[in-house]
């Protein structure tokens, strides 16, 4: 069983569209994250949720809206897509504190045309 | 958050030991050092974590000098499948060790 799963794996869309990426984890973790990785491999955190509550929002445009219906899911909705949104988006989960490791999904490659 | 600096890329021959360095001059007393490995088209995965001196597991060793301002990830006898991007992070037990991945170090293993 995949511990952290994301869908879709690939997403190609036009500028101005709205799209969503879904993430689910079956590890029983309380904390989930969204990261963005650009073409230069720079991996940057976007959001962190602990038990459905937003705890980190790293100056991400308002067009990005995470939603956590329960602690096992953290979805990312993006409005009015721009060319610069093209990237690979990774979902991850972990225990909320301590020095435990992050578990990442396989990534969702978003291409905005 | 402590900031880390890594070389952008490095090459190594198959079968050699590879040492990957990371600088973290502003590391705080409560910070741990964690390394992740990312293969193409996959998410990063945890390799090793340490606080001081030396930590070893089945995959790698982590060397941390007494001042903790740097660390070295050592991969013994690399194979082609070790070609990946390696990220060094520092952060405390309150979850701040998950935030600043940066650009990582692209390691290419050559036959």
Could you explain how this protein is built, in words?
The complex is a heterodimer of chains A (113) and B (111). Chain A is mostly beta strands and 113 residues long. Chain A contains no helices and 11 strands. Chain A is globular. Chain A starts with a strand and ends with a strand. By secondary structure, chain B is mainly beta. Chain B has no helices and 10 strands. Chain B has strands at 9-13, 18-23, 32-38, 45-50, 53-56, 61-64, 70-75, 84-91, 100-102, 105-110. The chains are: A mainly beta (113), B mainly beta (111).
Going by helix content, strand content and strand pairing, the class of chain B is mainly beta
Q: Can you tell me the residue ranges of chain A where pLDDT is under 50 for at least 5 consecutive residues? A: none
Q: Looking at the structure, what is the overall shape of chain B?
A: globular
Please provide the ordered H/E string of secondary-structure elements of chain A: EEEEEEEEEEE
Shape of chain A: globular
CATH superfamily of chain A: Immunoglobulins
Largest beta sheet of chain B: what is the strand line-up? 1-10-8-3-4
Quaternary structure classification: heterodimer
Task: State the helicity of chain B in percent bands.
Answer: under 10%
The count of domains of chain A is 1
Q: Classify the beta-strand content of chain A into a percent band.
A: over 45%
Major sheet details of chain A: 7 strands, mixed
The CATH architecture of chain B can be given as Sandwich
Query: In the CATH scheme, what's the topology name of chain B?
Result: Immunoglobulin-like
> If you average the pLDDT of chain B, what whole number results?
90
End-to-end CA span of chain B: 38 Å
Distance between the termini of chain A: 34 Å
Largest chain interface and its two residue counts? Answer: A-B, 27 and 25 residues
């Amino acid at each position: 069983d995949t511990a952290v799963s994301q869908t879709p794996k690939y997403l190609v869309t036009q500028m101005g569209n709205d799209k969503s990426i879904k993430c689910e984890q079956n590890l029983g973790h309380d904390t989930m994250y969204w990261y963005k990785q650009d073409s230069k491999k720079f991996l940057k955190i976007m959001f962190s949720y602990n038990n459905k509550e937003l705890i980190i929002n790293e100056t991400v445009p308002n067009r990005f809206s995470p939603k956590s219906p329960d602690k096992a899911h953290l979805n990312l909705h993006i409005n009015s897509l721009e060319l610069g949104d093209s990237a690979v988006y990774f979902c991850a989960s972990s225990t909320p504190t301590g020095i435990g490791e992050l578990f990442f999904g396989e990534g969702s490659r978003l291409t905005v045309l | 958050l402590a900031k880390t600096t890594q070389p952008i890329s490095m090459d190594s021959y198959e079968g050699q030991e590879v040492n990957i360095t990371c600088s973290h001059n502003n590391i705080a007393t409560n910070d741990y050092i964690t390394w992740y490995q990312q293969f193409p088209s996959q998410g990063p995965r945890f390799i090793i974590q340490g606080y001081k001196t030396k930590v070893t597991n089945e995959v790698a060793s982590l060397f941390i000098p007494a001042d903790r301002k740097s660390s070295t990830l050592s991969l013994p006898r690399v194979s082609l499948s070790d070609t990946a991007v390696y990220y060094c992070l520092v952060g405390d037990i309150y979850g701040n060790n998950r935030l600043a991945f940066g650009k990582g170090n692209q390691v290419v293993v050559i036959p």
